[in-house]
Write a structure and sequence with these properties.
Layout: H1 2-27, E1 58-69, E2 85-93, E3 98-105, E4 110-120, E5 131-141, H2 144-149, E6 156-167, E7 172-183, E8 198-209, E9 214-221, E10 223-224, E11 234-242, E12 246-253, H3 260-266, E13 277-287
Antiparallel strand pairs: 1-2, 1-13, 2-3, 3-4, 4-5, 5-6, 6-7, 7-8, 8-9, 8-10, 9-11, 11-12, 12-13
Protein backbone atom coordinates (compact mmCIF):
# COMPACT_ATOMS: atom_id res chain seq x y z
CA UNK A 1 0.00 0.00 0.00
CA UNK A 2 2.83 2.32 0.86
CA UNK A 3 4.45 1.49 -2.46
CA UNK A 4 1.26 2.46 -4.36
CA UNK A 5 0.99 5.72 -2.45
CA UNK A 6 4.64 6.48 -3.08
CA UNK A 7 4.29 5.79 -6.83
CA UNK A 8 1.15 7.96 -7.01
CA UNK A 9 2.94 10.78 -5.21
CA UNK A 10 5.84 10.58 -7.65
CA UNK A 11 3.48 10.73 -10.66
CA UNK A 12 1.58 13.69 -9.25
CA UNK A 13 4.85 15.50 -8.54
CA UNK A 14 6.22 14.88 -12.04
CA UNK A 15 2.98 15.89 -13.75
CA UNK A 16 2.73 19.04 -11.63
CA UNK A 17 6.32 19.97 -12.41
CA UNK A 18 5.73 19.44 -16.16
CA UNK A 19 2.59 21.60 -16.08
CA UNK A 20 4.40 24.42 -14.30
CA UNK A 21 7.33 24.17 -16.73
CA UNK A 22 4.99 24.21 -19.71
CA UNK A 23 3.25 27.31 -18.39
CA UNK A 24 6.59 29.02 -17.83
CA UNK A 25 7.71 28.11 -21.35
CA UNK A 26 4.41 29.44 -22.70
CA UNK A 27 5.00 32.78 -21.00
CA UNK A 28 8.54 33.02 -22.39
CA UNK A 29 7.62 32.04 -25.92
CA UNK A 30 9.39 34.21 -28.52
CA UNK A 31 7.39 36.91 -30.30
CA UNK A 32 6.14 35.68 -33.67
CA UNK A 33 8.16 37.42 -36.38
CA UNK A 34 7.52 38.02 -40.05
CA UNK A 35 7.02 40.84 -42.57
CA UNK A 36 4.75 43.72 -41.58
CA UNK A 37 1.56 43.63 -43.65
CA UNK A 38 -0.50 46.40 -45.26
CA UNK A 39 2.06 49.19 -45.03
CA UNK A 40 0.01 50.68 -47.88
CA UNK A 41 -3.22 49.35 -49.35
CA UNK A 42 -2.03 49.26 -52.97
CA UNK A 43 1.06 49.66 -55.14
CA UNK A 44 0.34 53.36 -55.63
CA UNK A 45 -1.75 56.17 -54.11
CA UNK A 46 -2.85 58.55 -56.87
CA UNK A 47 0.26 58.52 -59.06
CA UNK A 48 3.11 57.88 -56.60
CA UNK A 49 4.23 54.27 -56.16
CA UNK A 50 4.51 52.68 -52.73
CA UNK A 51 6.75 49.95 -51.26
CA UNK A 52 3.84 47.49 -51.39
CA UNK A 53 4.47 44.66 -53.85
CA UNK A 54 2.08 42.02 -55.17
CA UNK A 55 2.29 38.47 -53.79
CA UNK A 56 3.62 35.85 -56.18
CA UNK A 57 1.20 34.83 -58.97
CA UNK A 58 -1.18 37.66 -58.11
CA UNK A 59 -2.34 40.32 -60.55
CA UNK A 60 -3.69 43.83 -60.19
CA UNK A 61 -5.67 45.34 -63.03
CA UNK A 62 -5.96 49.11 -62.67
CA UNK A 63 -8.16 51.86 -64.02
CA UNK A 64 -6.67 55.27 -63.14
CA UNK A 65 -8.79 58.29 -64.05
CA UNK A 66 -9.01 62.00 -63.37
CA UNK A 67 -11.07 64.91 -64.70
CA UNK A 68 -10.55 68.62 -65.42
CA UNK A 69 -9.70 71.34 -62.90
CA UNK A 70 -12.14 72.07 -60.08
CA UNK A 71 -11.28 75.77 -60.52
CA UNK A 72 -13.25 75.69 -63.80
CA UNK A 73 -16.34 76.33 -61.69
CA UNK A 74 -19.95 75.45 -62.31
CA UNK A 75 -19.71 76.20 -66.04
CA UNK A 76 -17.36 73.23 -66.35
CA UNK A 77 -19.21 71.36 -63.56
CA UNK A 78 -16.09 71.73 -61.46
CA UNK A 79 -13.95 69.81 -63.91
CA UNK A 80 -16.26 66.84 -64.56
CA UNK A 81 -17.06 68.19 -68.03
CA UNK A 82 -13.37 68.68 -68.78
CA UNK A 83 -11.11 66.33 -70.69
CA UNK A 84 -10.29 63.17 -68.74
CA UNK A 85 -6.90 61.53 -68.33
CA UNK A 86 -6.96 57.73 -68.15
CA UNK A 87 -4.31 55.09 -67.55
CA UNK A 88 -5.09 51.39 -67.89
CA UNK A 89 -2.55 49.01 -66.43
CA UNK A 90 -1.75 45.50 -65.28
CA UNK A 91 0.82 44.47 -62.66
CA UNK A 92 1.90 40.88 -61.95
CA UNK A 93 3.76 39.41 -58.98
CA UNK A 94 6.66 37.35 -60.35
CA UNK A 95 7.77 36.60 -56.79
CA UNK A 96 6.67 37.92 -53.40
CA UNK A 97 9.27 40.68 -53.80
CA UNK A 98 9.24 41.41 -57.54
CA UNK A 99 6.36 42.63 -59.66
CA UNK A 100 6.28 43.89 -63.22
CA UNK A 101 3.68 45.91 -65.07
CA UNK A 102 2.56 47.59 -68.26
CA UNK A 103 0.20 50.51 -68.74
CA UNK A 104 -1.06 53.00 -71.28
CA UNK A 105 -1.98 56.62 -70.62
CA UNK A 106 -4.32 58.39 -73.03
CA UNK A 107 -2.32 61.64 -72.87
CA UNK A 108 0.19 61.46 -75.74
CA UNK A 109 -0.58 57.72 -75.97
CA UNK A 110 2.24 56.92 -73.54
CA UNK A 111 2.98 53.23 -72.92
CA UNK A 112 5.04 52.47 -69.82
CA UNK A 113 6.82 49.32 -68.64
CA UNK A 114 7.75 49.12 -64.98
CA UNK A 115 9.25 46.87 -62.35
CA UNK A 116 9.39 47.03 -58.56
CA UNK A 117 11.64 45.00 -56.27
CA UNK A 118 11.48 44.86 -52.47
CA UNK A 119 15.05 44.85 -51.17
CA UNK A 120 14.25 44.76 -47.48
CA UNK A 121 11.05 43.97 -45.57
CA UNK A 122 10.01 45.56 -42.29
CA UNK A 123 9.66 42.89 -39.59
CA UNK A 124 7.08 42.70 -36.82
CA UNK A 125 9.87 42.26 -34.24
CA UNK A 126 11.35 45.59 -35.44
CA UNK A 127 14.69 43.90 -36.11
CA UNK A 128 14.29 45.45 -39.56
CA UNK A 129 12.52 48.78 -38.91
CA UNK A 130 11.81 49.84 -42.51
CA UNK A 131 10.79 48.42 -45.87
CA UNK A 132 12.89 49.38 -48.90
CA UNK A 133 11.97 48.91 -52.55
CA UNK A 134 13.32 50.15 -55.87
CA UNK A 135 11.28 50.98 -58.95
CA UNK A 136 12.14 51.55 -62.58
CA UNK A 137 9.85 52.77 -65.34
CA UNK A 138 10.41 53.05 -69.09
CA UNK A 139 7.90 55.13 -71.06
CA UNK A 140 7.45 55.70 -74.78
CA UNK A 141 5.18 58.19 -76.50
CA UNK A 142 3.28 56.44 -79.30
CA UNK A 143 1.35 59.58 -80.31
CA UNK A 144 0.89 59.67 -84.08
CA UNK A 145 2.76 62.95 -84.55
CA UNK A 146 5.71 61.74 -82.51
CA UNK A 147 5.89 58.40 -84.30
CA UNK A 148 6.60 60.16 -87.56
CA UNK A 149 8.56 63.20 -86.35
CA UNK A 150 10.80 61.52 -83.73
CA UNK A 151 13.02 58.48 -83.69
CA UNK A 152 12.31 55.62 -81.30
CA UNK A 153 15.03 56.79 -78.92
CA UNK A 154 13.79 60.38 -78.94
CA UNK A 155 10.34 59.22 -77.79
CA UNK A 156 11.64 57.48 -74.64
CA UNK A 157 11.46 58.65 -71.02
CA UNK A 158 12.74 57.01 -67.84
CA UNK A 159 12.15 57.00 -64.11
CA UNK A 160 13.78 55.41 -61.08
CA UNK A 161 13.22 55.72 -57.34
CA UNK A 162 14.27 54.19 -54.03
CA UNK A 163 11.31 53.94 -51.62
CA UNK A 164 11.82 53.73 -47.86
CA UNK A 165 8.72 53.23 -45.70
CA UNK A 166 7.80 52.37 -42.13
CA UNK A 167 4.53 51.30 -40.56
CA UNK A 168 4.68 52.90 -37.11
CA UNK A 169 1.58 51.25 -35.66
CA UNK A 170 -1.73 49.76 -36.78
CA UNK A 171 -2.80 53.11 -38.24
CA UNK A 172 0.14 55.20 -39.50
CA UNK A 173 2.57 54.54 -42.37
CA UNK A 174 5.02 57.00 -43.94
CA UNK A 175 7.30 56.81 -46.99
CA UNK A 176 10.08 58.88 -48.57
CA UNK A 177 11.49 58.20 -52.03
CA UNK A 178 14.39 59.97 -53.76
CA UNK A 179 13.64 59.88 -57.49
CA UNK A 180 14.99 60.85 -60.90
CA UNK A 181 13.14 61.32 -64.18
CA UNK A 182 14.71 61.73 -67.61
CA UNK A 183 13.27 62.60 -71.03
CA UNK A 184 15.38 62.02 -74.11
CA UNK A 185 13.49 64.86 -75.81
CA UNK A 186 11.91 67.94 -74.28
CA UNK A 187 9.49 70.02 -76.33
CA UNK A 188 9.65 73.75 -75.70
CA UNK A 189 6.11 75.02 -75.33
CA UNK A 190 7.07 78.39 -73.80
CA UNK A 191 8.98 81.29 -75.31
CA UNK A 192 11.12 81.71 -72.22
CA UNK A 193 12.87 79.50 -69.73
CA UNK A 194 15.11 76.49 -70.09
CA UNK A 195 13.74 72.97 -70.21
CA UNK A 196 15.65 70.17 -68.51
CA UNK A 197 15.94 66.59 -69.67
CA UNK A 198 16.64 65.33 -66.14
CA UNK A 199 14.61 66.26 -63.06
CA UNK A 200 15.39 65.16 -59.50
CA UNK A 201 12.70 65.01 -56.84
CA UNK A 202 11.55 63.50 -53.57
CA UNK A 203 8.35 61.52 -53.15
CA UNK A 204 6.69 61.84 -49.74
CA UNK A 205 3.66 59.73 -48.88
CA UNK A 206 1.59 58.72 -45.89
CA UNK A 207 -1.40 56.61 -44.94
CA UNK A 208 -3.63 56.78 -41.86
CA UNK A 209 -5.98 53.86 -41.30
CA UNK A 210 -9.43 54.96 -40.14
CA UNK A 211 -10.88 51.45 -39.69
CA UNK A 212 -10.60 47.98 -41.22
CA UNK A 213 -11.94 49.19 -44.58
CA UNK A 214 -11.03 52.86 -44.94
CA UNK A 215 -7.90 54.99 -44.88
CA UNK A 216 -6.69 58.49 -45.73
CA UNK A 217 -3.50 58.88 -47.78
CA UNK A 218 -1.45 61.63 -49.40
CA UNK A 219 1.44 62.10 -51.81
CA UNK A 220 3.75 65.06 -52.38
CA UNK A 221 6.45 65.30 -55.07
CA UNK A 222 8.68 68.35 -54.55
CA UNK A 223 11.28 68.98 -57.25
CA UNK A 224 14.83 69.32 -55.93
CA UNK A 225 17.12 71.62 -57.91
CA UNK A 226 16.44 72.49 -61.54
CA UNK A 227 12.82 72.52 -62.61
CA UNK A 228 11.09 73.29 -65.89
CA UNK A 229 9.58 76.80 -66.16
CA UNK A 230 6.04 77.35 -64.86
CA UNK A 231 5.88 73.92 -63.20
CA UNK A 232 4.67 73.22 -59.66
CA UNK A 233 5.09 70.44 -57.11
CA UNK A 234 2.46 67.73 -57.45
CA UNK A 235 0.14 67.03 -54.47
CA UNK A 236 -2.68 64.52 -53.96
CA UNK A 237 -4.99 63.61 -51.07
CA UNK A 238 -6.85 60.29 -51.23
CA UNK A 239 -9.67 58.44 -49.47
CA UNK A 240 -9.19 54.68 -49.80
CA UNK A 241 -11.78 51.89 -49.57
CA UNK A 242 -10.77 48.24 -49.22
CA UNK A 243 -13.53 45.79 -50.16
CA UNK A 244 -11.38 42.66 -50.18
CA UNK A 245 -10.74 42.00 -53.86
CA UNK A 246 -10.90 45.70 -54.76
CA UNK A 247 -9.20 48.85 -53.51
CA UNK A 248 -10.95 52.08 -54.54
CA UNK A 249 -9.04 55.35 -54.22
CA UNK A 250 -10.93 58.65 -54.51
CA UNK A 251 -8.65 61.67 -54.60
CA UNK A 252 -7.95 65.28 -55.45
CA UNK A 253 -4.65 65.73 -57.31
CA UNK A 254 -2.89 68.71 -58.82
CA UNK A 255 -1.00 66.81 -61.52
CA UNK A 256 -2.69 65.32 -64.56
CA UNK A 257 -0.46 62.28 -65.14
CA UNK A 258 -0.25 58.90 -63.41
CA UNK A 259 3.44 58.28 -64.14
CA UNK A 260 5.95 59.88 -61.78
CA UNK A 261 8.37 61.13 -64.42
CA UNK A 262 5.59 63.23 -65.92
CA UNK A 263 4.29 64.40 -62.53
CA UNK A 264 7.78 65.67 -61.67
CA UNK A 265 8.55 67.33 -64.98
CA UNK A 266 5.18 68.52 -66.25
CA UNK A 267 2.80 69.42 -63.40
CA UNK A 268 1.85 73.04 -64.08
CA UNK A 269 -1.04 73.55 -61.63
CA UNK A 270 -0.90 74.72 -58.02
CA UNK A 271 -3.19 73.02 -55.53
CA UNK A 272 -3.18 76.16 -53.33
CA UNK A 273 -4.91 78.06 -56.17
CA UNK A 274 -7.65 75.39 -56.26
CA UNK A 275 -6.02 74.12 -59.44
CA UNK A 276 -6.63 70.48 -58.71
CA UNK A 277 -8.81 67.78 -60.18
CA UNK A 278 -10.99 64.97 -58.87
CA UNK A 279 -10.01 61.43 -59.80
CA UNK A 280 -10.24 57.80 -58.83
CA UNK A 281 -8.28 54.56 -59.12
CA UNK A 282 -9.86 51.11 -59.22
CA UNK A 283 -7.52 48.28 -58.23
CA UNK A 284 -8.79 44.73 -58.81
CA UNK A 285 -6.67 42.01 -57.22
CA UNK A 286 -6.90 38.31 -58.08
CA UNK A 287 -4.73 35.22 -57.91
CA UNK A 288 -3.61 33.22 -60.95
CA UNK A 289 -2.43 30.05 -59.24
CA UNK A 290 -1.60 28.29 -55.98
Amino acid sequence: MNIRKTALLILVTLFGSYSVSAQMLERKRAVQDGPVEDIFLAGSIAGLSTVTALPQKNMNSMVMHNFGLVSGGIEDFYGLDGGAAVRLGIDYGVTDKLDIGIGRTGIEDVVDLRAKYVILEQLKSDKVPVQIAIKGDLGISTQKERRFDYTFTERLNYFTSVMVARKFNDKLSLQVAPMVSHFNTVVKEQNNGKLYNTIVGLGIAGRYKLNNRNALAFEYLPVLGNRNPNTKDHVAVSFEIDTGGHVFQLFFMSGRWFTEQHLLARTDTNILDLDFRFGFNINRFFGLGK
